[in-house]
Specification:
The protein is of the alpha/beta class. It has one domain (about 5-160): Rossmann fold (3-Layer(aba) Sandwich). About 20% of the residues lie in helices and about 20% in strands. It is built from four helices and nine strands, in the order βαβββαβαβββαβ. The strands form two sheets. The chain has a seven-stranded mixed β-sheet with strand order 3-2-4-5-8-6-9, sandwiched between helices. A two-stranded antiparallel ribbon has the order 1-7. β4 (about 60-65), α2 (about 75-85) and β5 (about 85-90) form a beta-alpha-beta unit. α1 (about 20-25) packs across α4 (about 140-150). The chain is globular. The protein starts with 13 loop residues before the first strand and ends in an 8-residue tail after the last strand.
Length: about 170
């Protein structure tokens, strides 16, 4: 679920469009912020957490498109994502915010999507272009492989943050 910045306060019900998953070319063990498989059947996950995701354990390779709604609202989601250590997280690319810079530095790879994603509304229709772009953070070997495939499939620009102590 993601919120278009233009609709702040209106709804959290905006879903990742199918082309993102086609470009990633993988199956996830868990969608941690799902409205339910019946609403988003195109999301390639085996299990869908529809509520209380921050209080239950996550297992396996995860997909995360957490709500974009509140200021710093991504922080608890990203904290749990990086502690979990295996997956792909979709975030707004708010590169000047402290939270984005903190968590981008923890990502093994970052993919900046080409153009602005048109998220899917709760009624199934594509929304208009949001005010900001989107980035995907990868952690773990499966997450990195998914972003490498997505970049090769034209989803966007792949970057590797510089990590201290690595050559």
């Amino acid at each position: 679920m993601a919120l278009h910045e233009q609709s702040i306060g209106a709804t959290d019900e905006w879903y990742t469009p199918r082309p993102v998953f086609e470009a990633l070319g993988c199956e996830f063990d868990l969608d941690v912020a799902s409205p339910g498989q019946e609403i988003t059947p195109w999301i390639p996950a085996k299990v869908f957490i529809t509520r209380d995701s921050l209080t239950v354990p996550w297992t396996g390779f995860v997909w995360m498109n957490a709500p974009f709604c509140k200021r710093n609202g991504m922080v608890p989601w990203l904290e749990k994502f990086f502690v979990h250590g295996s997956g792909v997280a979709l975030t707004p690319d708010r590169t000047s915010t402290p939270w984005w810079q903190i968590y981008a530095a923890k990502a093994e790879l970052i993919l900046f999507t080409r153009g602005k994603l048109q998220f899917i509304s709760a009624n199934g229709a594509p929304g208009t272009s949001p005010a900001q772009g989107t980035s995907l953070f990868a952690v773990g070997p499966q997450g990195c492989a998914a972003l490498e495939r997505a970049a090769a499939n034209g989803l966007g620009l792949l970057m590797a943050p510089h990590h201290r102590g690595q050559s």
